[in-house]
Design goal:
111 residues, mainly alpha, 2 domains, two-stranded parallel ribbon, 4 helices
Amino acid sequence: MVYQDHLTKFRPIRSKHTVEVAAQLLDIFLMIGAPAILQSDNGTEFTANIISELKDCWPTLVLVHGKPRHPQSQGSVERENGDIKDMLVAWLADNHTQDWVTGINFVQFHK
């Protein structure tokens, strides 16, 4: 899952299971507010399941599944993912560790 917000950046998650993704999104939404549209390239069923899980926790949440307005934006996300991965790999090598959960915080700080 790729989640990026200009204020909070990103956070590590262990899986793309609906319950875990919904819990992370709920935490983010309660911190900075929920968006009107949730975009995902994982398909409508995945996104519908996430929205359903979120609605179970937050019944008054208004959220719909939307498609990106510009198909080119997916390329931008992929480039950003590559940059983040390169920075994280470099941090892990420099610090002689495999603790990517800590490393992602340093990458976030520098990004």
